[in-house]
Design a protein that fits this description.
Helix content is about 50%, strand content about 15%. The protein is an alpha/beta fold and about 325 residues long. It has a domain of about 220 residues: Aldolase class I (TIM Barrel, Alpha-Beta Barrel). The strands form 2 sheets. An 8-stranded parallel β-barrel has the order 1-2-3-4-5-8-9-10, surrounded by 10 helices. A two-stranded antiparallel ribbon has the order 6-7. The radius of gyration is 19 Å and the shape is globular. Bound molecules: glyceraldehyde-3-phosphate, 1,3-dihydroxyacetonephosphate and zinc ion. Glyceraldehyde-3-phosphate (G3H) binds next to helix 3 and strand 3.
Length: about 325
């Protein structure tokens, strides 16, 4: 059993209490490799932001679960070397089984998500409660989910949003004992969230109704990349073919972050930033073949993106 506290990580409880009271959201950035992790830590130390490092099942398969865990442990030391001790949480993103959650809890994760959102309600309650009962023995916090996001999550895809029903949240939170709740209000995973020519809006009215039912309870937004159009343009300028990639407006996320939304998940924007920077090097310097010469600029672009998010979108800067 590896205890997350022994390696300098924190769970989400204190982070979320502060975020709800302070009207900001903690960034949850996914990582699969060293450059992404370096960019996250550099950006969050420089902006003095707390951070949640997210590992998906796909990331575990890609990078190896043991390596990822040691990288997170290294990230704590790295943040100290950079001169800033910031709260760092290691979180399982979209855990789909009890066994996977237990494995993460036993190997140093400080927080897990059990995503039973695709299950019938009672099955979601039972699975989530089972994970909470196990996780809380080790003071690991748990995120549950109600409602289904449109788009693709690992192998599961949904054509349409199934918005979270405000009438269910109190019962779900009460019976499962979860520490935070991911909701579906119109965000979705990936870079193609809306049809071109539409005026995309997330359902802040549903969020408000949920807040009145469970006042002050930590709410999580998945699928919250903004798909910056200047980055999409850069990718396409350097040979990419991303047509009609559209995300969530930053102003809407800022508004959500001022409420009980205290964790905002961002992965796709980071993928886009890295891709734009790498494509630029490949086109402008076709003779380059040292990975550091294209992964370095990708890391710098990623760091700038994350700093922007912490300062201007989530409001988490200076909250460490
Ligand atoms: O919500 C999904 C995250 O963006 C992780 O994506 O499963 O491709 O690692 P992934
Ligand atoms: P994006 O695809 O919008 O970045 O969402 C990421 C996410 O929700 C990870 O769980
Ligand atoms: Zn997600």
């Amino acid at each position: 059993m590896i205890k997350y506290k022994d390696i300098g990580l924190v769970n989400t409880r204190g982070m979320f209490a502060k975020a709800v009271a302070g009207g900001y959201a903690v960034p949850a950035y996914n990582f699969n490799n060293m450059e992404q992790l370096q960019a996250i830590i550099q950006a969050c130390v420089e902006t003095r932001s707390p951070v949640i490092l997210q590992v998906s099942s796909g990331a575990r398969k890609y990078a190896n679960q043991t390596l990822l865990r040691y990288m997170a442990e290294g990230a704590v030391q790295y943040s100290r070397e950079l001169g800033g001790e910031i709260p760092i949480c290691l979180h399982l993103d979209h855990g789909d089984t009890f066994e996977l959650c237990c494995d993460c809890i036993e190997t140093g994760f400080s927080s897990v998500m059990i995503d039973g959102s695709h299950l019938p309600y009672e099955e979601n309650v039972a699975l989530t409660a089972r994970v909470v009962e196990y996780a809380h023995r080790y003071d690991v916090t748990v995120e549950g989910e109600l409602g289904v996001l449109a788009g693709i999550e690992d192998d599961v895809s949904a054509e349409k949003h199934v918005y979270t029903q405000p009438a269910e949240v109190q019962d779900f939170v009460g019976r499962t004992g979860v520490d935070s709740l991911a909701i579906s209000i119109g965000t979705s995973h990936g870079a193609f969230k809306f049809k071109p020519g539409t005026n995309p809006k997330i359902r802040l009215d549903i969020l408000r109704e949920i807040e009145t039912r469970i006042p002050g309870f930590p709410i999580v937004l998945h699928g919250s990349s903004s798909v910056p159009q200047e980055i999409v343009a850069e990718i396409n300028k350097y040979g990419g073919q991303l047509k009609d990639a559209i995300g969530i407006g930053e102003d809407q996320l800022r508004e959500a972050a001022r409420s009980a939304v205290c964790k905002i998940n961002i992965d796709s924007d980071g993928r886009l930033a890295m891709t734009g920077a790498i494509r630029k090097v490949f086109i402008e310097k076709p003779a380059e073949f040292d990975p550091r010469k294209y992964l370095g600029p990708a890391r710098d672009a990623l760091k700038e993106l994350y700093k922007h998010k912490c300062i201007h979108v989530l409001g988490s800067a200076e909250q460490a």
